[in-house]
Write a structure and sequence with these properties.
This protein is of the alpha+beta class. The protein has 2 domains: 2-74, Ubiquitin-like (UB roll); 81-151, Orthogonal Bundle (DNA polymerase, domain 1). Helices cover 37% and strands 16% of the residues. The protein contains 6 helices and 5 strands. A hairpin with a 2-residue loop joins strand 1 (2-8) and strand 2 (11-17).
Length: 157
């Protein structure tokens, strides 16, 4: 058993458990944060994307020992920020959401992109989203949603 101190969605958290437990499992099973999804468990699909120290990271590949002293932000944590509301609205308006399974990971990755680049070109959007797979919408609507969000100067990024 290890005691791991980290910041989760802005609040200090102490995890007492195995250092080799996956962050994804701890978020879902112990913290009740189910936004990050297990799609592949191999770091290929992006459904489990969270922000680790502000950068997109795959929670299915992160062990709890790796988050010691670090900051983790989930889609639930982003939901309190104005940029999240803009992205959610734009994803809905562009038809970028169908089954919704990949959407939390997409939103997290898109949020990080727009926070760092307020006017990304289409190629930059596609590159930033390359690690997030969607089997329902195709990527045209997702790119359009992110372009719409980038154009919204009230995003609060």
């Amino acid at each position: 058993m290890s005691e791991i101190l980290f910041t989760l969605n802005g609040a200090e958290k102490i995890y007492a458990g195995r250092a080799d437990a996956r962050l994804l499992d701890v978020l879902r099973d112990e913290c009740g944060l189910t936004g990050a999804k297990e799609g592949c468990g191999e770091g290929e699909c992006g459904s489990c994307t969270v922000l680790l120290d502000g950068c997109p990271a795959l929670s299915c590949l992160l062990l709890m020992g790796q988050v010691q002293g670090r900051s983790v932000t989930t889609v639930e944590g982003l939901s309190q920020r104005r940029g999240f509301a803009v992205l959610s609205r734009c994803f809905a308006e562009a038809g970028a959401v169908q089954c919704g399974f990949c959407t939390p990971g997409m939103i997290v990755a898109a949020y990080a992109l727009l926070r760092d680049n307020r006017s990304p070109a289409e190629e930059q959007i596609r590159a930033a989203m390359a690690g997030n797979l969607c089997r329902c919408t195709g990527y045209k609507a997702i790119v359009a949603a992110i372009e719409m969000a980038a154009a919204d100067r009230d995003g609060g990024w």
